[in-house]
Fold this protein.
Amino acid sequence: MKADIKNTFEKIYENEADAIFRFCLIRVSDREQAMDITEETFLRLWQNLLSGKEILNTRAFLFTITRNLIIDWYRKKKSIPFFKMNDAIFNEGEMGYDPSDEMSTSLLETKAEGRYLLEKISELTPSYRQPVYLRYVEDLSPVEIGEILGISANAASVRINRGLLELKKKAGYNDDINQNE
Amino acid sequence: MNNMEHKNLNNGIKEIKKIMMTTDEKKQIFDRILNSNIPQQRVQSPWFGYSFMLKIHKSQLVYYVVVPLVIILTSSGVVLASEKSLPEDVLYPIKVSVVEPIRGAFTFSSKSKAKYQSNLATERLVEAEMLASSGKLDDSKEKKLNNLLEKHSISLNKELEKVTKENLSTEADEIAINFKAEMNAHARVLNIIMAEDNELDFDTIDNQISKTARSNADKVKISIKNEEEDDDEEDDISDKYNKKKDIVKAKINSKANKNTTTSISISEIEDINNDDVDQIFNEAKNFLDEAEKKELEGDSAGAYIELLNSESSMKEDDIFKEVKSRFEHEDEDD
């Protein structure tokens, strides 16, 4: 029984660990911290699998936990009032890609087009950043994105589309980005 | 241009996707997770109580339920503790400035308010007696109690006016008579206690509180007088007089009989207080005689007032005896 669970977990870990790590690293700009959050996320998954809890959508589950852990990390790190936290996360942390940050070695290693895209995503309106990133980089569906962000699938779609339009303008990708979907 | 940009975007995504952990890092995390000790069943934390408090705190339940509950419990404890406090105690200001006014606010009719103020005035005199009996009634406490007594008497008179205006003059009379009796009886007791403590002659003692009590008793008497004399309905007063007269007369007669049977034992004890009892009782009889005289003269209002005075003196006699015996028992216990 436990062997089955272990196999299931191993498959999920193999497929999703990098996506989760990437999502963390881009937001916290700290490789060690990103690894810690990734580990904690998969530990929660492992606990859930062992306790026999049903997980309907593993990817949405993992990204939701990661997002919450990152929010917790910001709370602890900044000790800022709760009402200002969202601003802090969205303005600094959500796409906290900062080429000058010595800790974000992996990000610095990313080549020019990748860095450029991340930079443009980080310049988007805060509420569009995550939907655009999760849709185009991590290939999540609007339903999954809605579940992760705690909004409806329709609202997620609207944010993705508006974010896309904004990204086109900022990055100069024009209409060709549609072909990428 | 477009193809170029499209390519750039795909490249950008590809490059972002290259951000990943090393194989070693990945393996280390995987191993740590699989080797972690995860309890299969929930075990109640030894910090359950603490966690529970934390939950209450986090859910803000503490602000809406727990804190008010603590305040209520604490304040009710303070209220209870302040009940028996005396002017020398720390809780006394809470009693007279918080608890009593709040209780007063929960009495709604003028009649209840008047009774409440009368009771408070009596309470102040009882406090003075308790302090005096333990030799702690100094000038500052005397002044404090005196001011409070004055305040209660003023409030009482105001409420009595309202009661009379509400056509409840009989009820107003009752309250006024009781107040007058209480004030005079306790003033007398207070003087006796102070005379005994200071080894002075009873007649030479006249402290401020007793004076105020007596003067307030007189003020209430005057207010009855004014109300009754202004009353044009002579028949009503005459009715009230006749109803009360028989009751008061019966009381005086029964008391006179009692005094006769116990006169031997009383006279055997050399006690200044027995003179007081006789004095009050004689006053009651004199007021009754006066009432009957005025009745014959056709002065119904005057007769009724005298009858009320007689009734008041009878009550004063009862209260005086009761308070006196209480203090005597306390002395014996000591």
